Amino acid sequence: MNKSTLYYIWLTQSIGYCTTKVKYVFELYPDIEMLYKGGEQELRLCGIFTENEISKLAKIRLADAENVLRRCDELNFKAIDISMKEYPQCLRGISDAPGVIYVSGELPDFENLDTVSIVGTRKATAYGVRTAFSLGANLAKAGFVVVSGGALGIDCAAHKGVLEQNGIAVCVLGCGIDYDYLLENKALRKCISKTGALVSEYPPDFPPAAHNFPQRNRIISALSKGVIVVEAPLKSGSMITVDFALKQGRDVFAVMGNVDSPYSKGANQLIKEGAVPVTNWQDVAEFYRGLFDEETEN
Predict the structure, then answer these.
(1) N or C: less crowded end of the chain, CB within 10 Å?
(2) pTM greater than the 0.90 cutoff
């Protein structure tokens, strides 16, 4: 266990998730223990926290963070804080980087592997499911890491396509990794953890909540070079992921869909606004690798 991890858990338990203040702490304190041991005086002098946050930071016990790490050991999860070399640099680079990520499985080498995320609606059409599966399978076969959110519909289809090719899938969750959320996808998540990784900024046993999922979408886009939207209404979590991707300087792709379908309106609108249109997996591969040797599609 890194001692720094203990203090970053203490920090996030006190001030919450999806905040730029973790990054400020990381940049200001090469050793976060200095912040903790400085007490309330240091918390005020650093100029990062509100009085309410200072009060919470002073009240949260380090023993609570120790309990989280103990639970990680029981579940064989890794707790990786922002100061550790194992923490993905692409994630560390965003302004609201998580203080700690919890991982089941093995993180891929994000810096040296082509990584894309595939996102879309939970209420996918048969066309959307087929397309997401094909993209996941063929991009995995071509050596891409595929990131998604583990939800029903497009996410699930993309993950299944990756697994069929024994590829590397990364599933970013909006709750604790061990939490029994979407039981119908439990077996899928277990398979992902064997060949890739389950990732969450939320500690073990942390329940899902509506606001968790838009927050976790910033992690999906941050871990990717580009975001592929398969099917998405104009107002949806996938479009939130696109907003994060644009702010983070990631590429945006969109699968052209039926103009009559409400589930294609988001993707079609993105193409009108300049997203890279996708008709097959080679469109994505060629974007990153130039001309790509055509292989038999699934």
Answers:
(1) N
(2) yes
**Which tokens in the block code for residue 260?**
């009559």
Q: What does the pLDDT look like over 161-182, one tens digit per residue?
A: 999 999 999 999 999 999 987 7
Residue 278 makes CB contacts below 8 A (sequence gap 6+) with 135, 228, 253, 254, 255, 256, 284
d(CA 102, CA 86): 12
Bridge partners for 169 per DSSP = 146
Please say whether the beta carbons of 213 and 236 come within 8 A: no
Tens digits of residue pLDDT in 58-88: 888 899 999 999 999 999 999 999 999 999 9
Distances (CA, A) of 40 to 19, 22, 30: 20, 17, 19
Pairing of the two strands 115-119 and 78-81: unpaired
The CATH number for 177's domain is 3.40.50.450
In 10 A of CB 202, how many CB atoms?
24
Same domain, 254 and 176: yes
Is residue 99 within 8 Å of 36, Cβ to Cβ?
A: no
Structure tokens at 218: 């910033």
Percent of the chain clearing pLDDT 90 (strictly above): 86
Closest C-alpha to 5, from 83, 63, 76: 83
Residue 296 lies in a domain: no
What is the spatial distance between Cα 245 and Cα 250, in angstroms, rounded to a whole number?
A: 5
Q: Is residue 98 part of a domain?
A: no
**Which run of H or E residues covers position 100?**
strand 100-105
The helix or strand, by DSSP H or E, that contains position 277, with its residue range, turns out to be strand 276-278
Query: What is the C-alpha to C-alpha distance for residues 224 and 11, in angstroms, rounded to an integer?
Result: 26
State the total domains in the chain: 2
State whether 228 and 144 are in the same domain: yes
